[in-house]
Design brief:
Elements lengths: L1 E3 L9 E10 L3 E3 L6 E8 L2 E5 L2 E5 L3 E5 L5 E5 L6 E8 L6 H5 L5 E4 L6 H13 L5 H22 L5 H17 L6 H8 L3 H12 L3 H19 L5 H7 L5 H12 L3 H8 L1
Antiparallel strand pairs: 1-2, 2-9, 3-8, 4-7, 4-9, 5-6, 5-8, 7-10
Length: 269
């Protein structure tokens, strides 16, 4: 079964779509999906391509994908790949990265503490029987997101000593100051290390250099701003997210997404 908009999108957390026991077709989203998106394998084997990385999704493993993150996935080996999924929206959409602790995609597994699969199954069953309550569903979404965060914190490289010592402060500095003309040197000074070493740490733990991470973070914020503030001029959006002029923003945005900001807004707005 698949259901859409099962509770009020004006609540802090809301479900845009949810489904289970789904015979998953091949998906190729060159511009991502406009909402936060969780998909996991029920049976069979899936493969996802994201950030130039191929990842297998066996039963019990899922991935949480932020809005507008290009990705594609398909069944691997056996065409019968069954999945469960849920997509989130709500008035707290802009703060999801704070709730889960990152603005990047995340992998998570079923654990003894929490089953993402059981959560989806129960919600689908309740909604099918007209037993869901809007506020309870919103609170339950928060539980789901917090368990993604807990899995990340317990199993990811973020527990590494170098990550805790340097990257935590660097990422927080970027997320706080990305609207300003920050530089790699400035962030490195803040972390008391050299710019070269900082970029090596970024490459190790995030897969990109420090400057690329800043650029990608600004573009991601630009996408969110274009969608959530449809009447705001592109020049103002560029200023809000830290680009020194609109032409630089437009050229960078098109290089990263394949669209100009206005084309992107028309496509998803």
């Amino acid at each position: 079964m698949i259901y859409f908009n099962i509770n009020n999108p004006d609540l802090p957390l809301s479900i845009e779509s949810i489904g289970n026991h789904w015979l998953q077709p091949t998906i190729n989203r060159k511009n991502g999906y406009p909402y936060y998106h969780w998909i996991q394998t029920e049976s069979g084997l899936g493969e996802i391509l994201i950030d130039h990385t191929r990842i297998e999704l066996p039963p019990g493993k899922g991935i949480f994908i932020p809005p507008f993150q290009p990705h594609q996935y398909h069944a691997k080996h056996n065409p019968e790949w069954y999945t469960s999924f849920v997509t989130f929206t709500g008035t707290l959409s802009d703060d999801f990265s704070k709730i889960i602790g990152t603005s990047e995609w995340l992998l998570a597994d079923e654990t003894q503490q929490f089953s993402f699969q059981n959560w989806i199954n129960l919600l689908v069953e309740k909604h099918g029987e007209m037993k869901t309550m809007e506020m309870d569903t919103s609170l339950s979404c928060y539980e789901f997101l917090l368990n993604i965060r807990r899995f990340k914190e317990e199993n990811s490289d973020s527990q590494h000593r170098l990550y805790q010592t340097y990257l935590t402060d660097a990422l927080a500095y970027i997320e706080t100051n990305y609207r300003d003309p920050i530089t790699v040197e400035e962030i490195a000074d803040h972390c008391f290390i050299s710019p070269q070493y900082l970029s090596r740490l970024f490459k190790r733990f995030t897969g990109v250099s420090t400057s690329a991470y800043i650029r990608n973070f600004r573009i991601k914020k630009g996408k969110e701003t274009l969608i959530h503030h449809p009447s705001t001029e592109v020049q103002q959006v560029a200023h809000w997210i830290g680009f020194k002029d609109s032409s630089h923003f437009v050229s960078t945005f098109k290089k990263e997404t394949g669209y100009t900001p206005l084309e992107f807004r028309r496509l998803y707005g």
